[in-house]
Write a structure and sequence with these properties.
Layout: H1 23-27, E1 38-42, E2 45-49, E3 52-53, E4 57-58, E5 61-63, E6 72-73, H2 75-90, E7 96-98, E8 124-125, H3 162-172, E9 180-182, H4 184-194, E10 203-205, E11 214-215
Parallel strand pairs: 5-7, 9-10
Antiparallel strand pairs: 1-2, 3-6, 4-5, 8-11
Length: about 240
């Protein structure tokens, strides 16, 4: 199942069973499981071995809230973010705020997401304002105005622009992207303006997607189907 190896344990030290499949357990693990990259399970019930870290900043992106240690993912996801940020920059977009990817070994999170468990998801904030190079510590508390009306009946016409749709389209048209989750009010706006574009099909409304909507595009490397994974502690060396 996992590419990482377990160290032999004596009967006296071997745990009776895996620890609970809870976000607090998985979130406490600071490093990825060793071995080649392998996705186990699905977006909302899974884990990953061999995850790699996204640099906290690069050409066209800056990671926010890095203290959460949720900037890990499958190498194909990291490659997608690098490529997507570079193409966005080439089209005149400002640096992208990159939110949560996944934890070092995936699995459930203590708060914030039901998915993001298998190293294939990323939150890209739809903030198009120019951004200076901000130190990582200062990016722990970034505030972005919502693009959606307070009652979520529609987009805020004072804030929504065709450039927001263009950035979502750029993600939806990227090779390997399976879905781009946005607030349902944004999806309705896209249906009105981009309905003829079959390339926008991956953009989908997400139940419970917060009013400050991130794009959410997970690339698709081959995935294994498996039973719910053992908690990460059982796979340490």
């Amino acid at each position: 199942m996992a590419a990482g190896t377990r160290s032999p344990q004596s009967a006296a030290t071997r745990p009776a069973g895996p620890p609970p499949y809870r976000g607090a357990v998985w979130g406490a693990v600071s490093r990825p499981a060793p071995g080649p990259p392998r996705v186990i399970g699905a977006y909302a019930l899974g884990c990953i071995a061999g995850a790699v870290a996204l640099p906290l900043e690069g050409p066209g992106w800056q990671v926010v809230r890095a203290s959460r240690n949720r900037f890990w993912g499958h190498p194909s996801l990291i490659a997608f973010i690098r490529d997507f940020a570079g193409r966005a920059r080439a089209r005149g977009f400002a640096d992208l705020w990159i939110g949560d990817l996944g934890q070092p070994r995936g699995g459930p999170m203590a708060f914030g997401h039901a998915s993001h468990q298998s190293g294939l998801d990323v939150d890209v904030w739809l903030d198009l304002a120019p951004k200076p190079a901000v130190p990582a510590a200062a990016r722990e508390d970034i505030r972005v105005a919502s693009l959606v009306l307070p009652d979520e009946t529609g987009i805020d016409p004072a804030r929504w622009t065709p450039r927001h749709a263009a950035l979502i389209r750029l993600a939806a048209e990227s090779p390997g992207v399976e879905r781009v989750l946005v607030n349902h009010a944004i999806k309705r706006a896209l249906c009105r303006t981009d309905a003829p574009r079959s390339s926008m099909f991956p953009a989908r409304p997400a139940a419970g997607r917060p009013p400050r909507p991130p794009a959410h595009p997970p690339p698709r490397p081959p995935r294994r189907r498996a039973a719910p994974p053992a908690a990460p502690r059982a796979r340490r060396r």
